[in-house]
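Margin note from the TA: students keep mixing up input and output lines. Inputs are the sequences; the output is the structure of the whole complex. Example:
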Amino acid sequence: MSEGEKVAPAAYEQVVRAADATVAQFDGPKRSALGQVQHFLHIYPTMVPVIVLAISLAVFGVLAGGKFFSAFNLSLILQQVSVIGILAAAQALIVLTAGIDLSVAAIMVLMAVISGKLSITLGVPAPLALMVAFAGGTLTGMLNGLMVTRLKLPPFIVTLGTWNIFFALNLWLSGAQSIRSQDIDAAAPLLKFFGGSFKIGAANITYGSILMVAVFAVLWFVLNRTAWGRHVHAIGDDRDAAELAGIRTDRTLVQVYALAGFVCALAAWASIGRVGSISPQSFYEGNLQSITAVVIGGISLFGGRGSILGALFGALIVGVFNSGLRLVNVDVLWQVFAIGWLIIIAVAIDQWIRKVSA
Amino acid sequence: MSVQPILTARGLVKRYGRVTALDTCDFDLMPGEILAVIGDNGAGKSSLIKALSGAISVDAGEIRLDGQPVRFSSPLEARGAGIETVYQNLALSPALSIVENMFMGRELRMPGPLGQWLRMLDMPRMRAFARDKLNELGLATIQNIDQPVETLSGGQRQGVAVARAAAFGSKVVILDEPTAALGVKESRKVLDLIQDVRARGVPIILISHNMPHVFEVADRIHVHRLGKRLCVIDPREHAMSDAVAYMTGAKVPEGLAA
Amino acid sequence: MTTTVRAALLGAIATAAFAAAAPASAAGIGACLITKTDTNPFFVKMKEGATAAANAHGISLQTFAGKIDGDVETQIAAVESCVAAGAKGILITPSDSRALAPAVTAARSAGLLVIALDTPFEPADTADATFATDNFKAGVMIGQWAKAKLGDAAASAKIATLDLNASQISVDYLRNQGFLQGFGIDVKDPTRIGDEDDARIIGSDVTNGNEEGGRTAMENLLQKDPGINVVYTINEPAAAGAYEALKAMGREKDVLIVSVDGGCPGVQNVKEGIIGATSMQFPLLMASMGIEAIKAFAETGTKPANTEGLDFFNTGVELITDAPVDGIPSLSSADGLSKCWG
């Protein structure tokens, strides 16, 4: 955080200079060029995905030409990643606390189905149905958080359980049947709000894309510019230390999970606009895709390290790879292959950067 | 003695099953002093410190701060009352910056709607305050106040932890083995730091195994043995070997012999 | 990793459930139905058909399902449970046409009748019989229909195919290649999607058979060539997704979408002009005929025979469209709605 902050009063700098000459040297040895890169990335871990994104945009721009590097295609990538991007924001919140949430996509699909069932099948007004979905998302997230903190179960196990539970509830509620796009248009067009779009030149920007960017902006502010956000980082960094420093870690963790659940409900609303219909079978692997985005975005699975914006770049990198590889006629299985390598390389870079502190 | 102790304990008892960790233990800390607490392993030193810092609650006895009886059910309550503890593992978040660590749990918010509605942190104010505190304690060698704590040396980290403990108007600072993990040069700096804190009028309870360090900085030495205070000695009047002998029971202090 | 864990857990649960239920079935004839998932309405309908037929014939039926399409471990565990419980026969829609062969062979050598429903094994004689939709024919029907509908324009059509997934399982390539052949394209290897060199094919992409995948795949192919005017889809949810993508780009009026399945929402989409034509299959029939075959096998030892000229028993396929063309028999969407599943 606080990149490029320069508030240093001159008096302080003078003290520093004077002190440097007289007092024992605390500095480490001179760094090599590679060491300096490592140090830089350690301070700004989000630069890794930004660089990867820039390089992949350039490479596919050359390989696939104007078809790839058009305003329209780039805006299309933005809308294609919007749902997974929002899920990745929720996932990033949990990963920053050194947890993992396998249930994000299941919460999302369940909330989409609930809002659809209420408004289309039962005739509940759409705004009310959405409110129920938001409350439901928050409560399901809170349920995860309570089990993690009160029952002291590992987040992996808790969310593995709730993933299955929410998925089963989703099938039971939906009868495994999609709600058709045309039926939503007729009964509750508000549910498809985020599918709407406007044009800037050739670019076609959906409200869902805007929502994704807004979710990241708000969460970035909360995590980096509020005390609560810094506590979340501290908990992920070293939970015992945070507790001793006076943070109520359990309460904060439950809040984090609840917030993540709320973000999943937002993703649910966005997904209806994106997909068109409410499909209980879509996004089955959304949890893994969100983890992929978070990891490629340079957020450490060990917690506390990385910026939530990394998850946005991670999601965009996956979107750029999929779009670019398709446009140069690469078979689907090689897209899967490429994403696999991206994940491993991202985690390897994270480990390498972390060695600075060792 | 006309000066009243700032922190006292009388008749503290703490049992863990059949083991009596504190056996009607007394304790006194005077304003502005460095009181070292020494004792053999298992003598109940850490139980005493935990009782004073709120980490455990005692079975019997009374603790008074500024003459008022107090009862802490958590370290947070003790901290709220002005007793700050620097734990051996420092309780710092390695990936967070020096400023953030210093203000962890008591951050400053922006004035006006930014702070009230957006709950936005006032980083400039926090930075300025942290710099002042580090300068006061002679820790100006820390170049960048926004650098992560994990990039600091062990001594610098200790410095940040001590500065945090001393910075917020605390009445008592408890330091648990502050030099145990440090080299000679860094220990030197930390000892200077401890004296700086005292110079600012904050009394310190120093738990340490390192006799030279204890004898260098302490005003008085509380010798703990078998769950209670054996004696309090003046380092200027006793040799290190005496202190060790009292601690281990090899020798009985004068005045207690009879 | 998580899939494996989950599958193992489910397998254990399934085994336990069966073990508990087994004593009740010991007296009469026991049968098992193992579907790919119980999330897909197709399999829900199949289960309905099997349950109804089992009740009618006094057969005790146990049903199992994988968690997702491709969940082989759960299906293997289910086959093993059925053998252990002494069932007379197994109806199975294999999640993987080859990977389940050892488990199925073991079941057959233990004396069970194994019938593949919907998806054939490879080779087909891994099972005693296959009751399935002729997926190739289903594809041919919509291919011929699309060609006839376009008339002369077929020669310059721009075709996109929206397939299932990277594994290219039999139902995936049979429908795809059937469609292309029906449209009059040289398919080269009929078990391989994507080896064609006909310039009319703009490209293929995978959809996982759902709306989200259908939409993303359609968008990507439109990026390759915005002039696409014929879209083949593996199933109707994928078709609905493709339609959303076309609509977002204002192309929904001038693109012909064809599909396979015959699910009720799909037929409704035919009625509303979203899908041009779809080939309807009959999952309920597959299951009820399967149960009858197990009964016959348990009582007389006779095994079902294949349809003439095919290596499986064809349970039928019907073309549903509201724009019939000469020479291709079809049903209207109104008729379709009375026969659809799900």
